[in-house]
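stage 2 :: seqdesign
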């Protein structure tokens, strides 16, 4: 189990009385990589980080850092720094004192502390807040200060617990870009927990999908998005959510939304001899709405249905049509409403049958 070159969690389990918070969680966060633990609230993300940091004991399981077991070491002996979602800055210390605090605690020489603090402030654009208290700082400044306080220690691994949750959306976008750039430039090893799928896809080299205390999928951003392991993951990752539609397949034909199309080879192979109804996953961006012409293009997988809802997403729209008893949400051009109104018949079209997903009755993906 003692693999080198990263942070290895093996069989981490945590119980709080009768409640199972983590159940046999195992993964490897690579050295120099940006690994993300993704999942909804209550999935066990923070608990995982707290066990890794040594802030709580695991019920069972082991933790290795670069091949050395650290499961029984005190937090300060594990060579990891944890950044909490509440930032945990010292409210009575100015920016300089907050940045310097980890080095002061380790009794580093005054000259070394000064040099490292000013270098970190320069790197994170914090020089103007060094003499200010946190209450006078913006959300972004406090966020960078908390990050700098962890970075100045130069630990082996950084554990980030929803580090951007306390800032508004525009600043969150900017800070996550800075975080990714800094990680790549300096070669830091990051393990971040977040409930935000867009954040995870934007920064993660590897994503660990957690549901109800269990790891359900590990893969790159494209793996998690394009080949979700089950319907829960498919619904959680993506906005607008993936369409889950009733489908059947037999004798090389795929039937869904009242359409009959050749079954894509990969899907046909995955289904094998399965003959029952299953759930087809269709991402909204893999479909289109056509107002003119009023019918799908010749040979395309599509039909005609009434427009029942439209939600603005800025330059695009999430348009929903009702096909029989099912609702299909499609990404459409922002000028759709200038050509059609709610209740009008419009044409819908599936762009790429090969990108469809297929889920078993228990929610697992046929395609792996």
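stage 2 :: out
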């Amino acid at each position: 189990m003692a693999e080198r070159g990263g942070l290895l969690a093996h069989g981490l389990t945590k119980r709080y009385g009768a409640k199972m918070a983590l159940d046999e969680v195992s993964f490897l966060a690579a050295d120099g990589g940006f690994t993300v633990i993704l999942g909804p609230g209550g999935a066990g993300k923070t608990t995982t980080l707290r066990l890794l940091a040594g802030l709580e004991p695991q019920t069972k399981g082991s933790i290795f850092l670069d091949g050395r077991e650290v499961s029984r070491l005190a937090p300060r002996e594990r060579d990891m720094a944890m950044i909490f979602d509440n930032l945990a800055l010292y409210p009575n210390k100015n920016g300089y004192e907050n940045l310097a605090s980890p080095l002061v605690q380790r009794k580093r020489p005054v000259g070394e502390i000064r040099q490292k603090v000013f270098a970190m402030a320069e790197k994170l654009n914090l020089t103007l807040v060094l003499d200010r208290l946190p209450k006078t700082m913006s959300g972004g400044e406090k966020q960078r200060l908390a990050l700098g306080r962890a970075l100045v220690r130069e630990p082996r691994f950084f554990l980030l617990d929803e580090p951007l949750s306390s800032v508004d959306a525009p600043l969150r976008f900017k800070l996550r870009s800075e975080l990714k750039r800094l990680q790549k430039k300096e070669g830091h090893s990051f393990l971040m927990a977040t409930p935000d799928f867009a954040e995870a896809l934007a920064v993660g080299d590897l994503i660990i999908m957690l549901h109800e205390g269990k790891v359900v999928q590990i893969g790159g951003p494209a793996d998690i998005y394009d080949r979700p392991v089950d319907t829960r993951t498919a619904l959680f990752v993506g906005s607008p959510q993936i369409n889950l539609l009733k489908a059947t397949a037999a004798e090389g034909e795929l039937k869904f939304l009242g359409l009959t199309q050749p079954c894509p080879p990969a899907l046909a192979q995955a289904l094998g001899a399965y003959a029952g109804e299953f759930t087809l996953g269709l991402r909204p961006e893999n479909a289109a709405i056509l107002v003119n012409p009023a019918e799908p293009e010749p040979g395309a997988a599509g039909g005609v249905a009434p427009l029942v809802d439209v939600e603005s997403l800025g330059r695009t729209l999430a348009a929903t049509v009702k096909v029989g008893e099912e609702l299909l949400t499609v990404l459409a051009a922002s000028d759709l409403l200038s050509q059609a109104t709610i209740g009008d018949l419009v044409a819908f079209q599936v762009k790429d049958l090969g990108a469809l997903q297929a889920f078993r009755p228990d929610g697992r993906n046929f395609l792996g």
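stage 3 :: structure notes
- The mean pLDDT is 91.
- The two ends are 26 Å apart (CA to CA).
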